[in-house]
Amino acid sequence: MAQREVHFHEQINAPIDRVFEFLADHQNFAALFGGRCTRIKPGDDAAEPNGVGSVRRIGPGPLAFDETIVVFDRPQRIDYTISRGSPLKNHLGSIRLRNTGAGTEIDYVIRAEGRLPGLGALAGHALALAWKANARKQFAKIEA
């Protein structure tokens, strides 16, 4: 099955440190897609509980899946993989931030394959719709 890619690009009127802090918070991150999550394991570094090794559970009951933070490079990058319970495989989400002087540019790419034919495309479409419906409202909370 083919790997699918969903790409989100945003310009936020807020400093890079504030944007990174917002995205590093698991609750805020899930809200970008209209969801909720719970941190079920803190990161490997006690000073960064949402950092590398942190696991967040997204979704309700038997539909829940886990994501594990694999790169946490303050304030430029957060990468994560789905580590349990998803109909997707070979997943990587990568968020890159760049200071533009006037704010922060977000370049966010999600790559994954569906475990069944057509599932990757369906998941990509659902993610794009959820982002469009929710992300701008969430980012407005941190804009200057």
TrEMBL record:
This is SRPBCC family protein. The lineage of its organism: Bacteria, Pseudomonadati, Pseudomonadota, Gammaproteobacteria, Nevskiales. It comes from Solimonas terrae. Pfam families: Polyketide_cyc2. Signal peptide: none annotated.
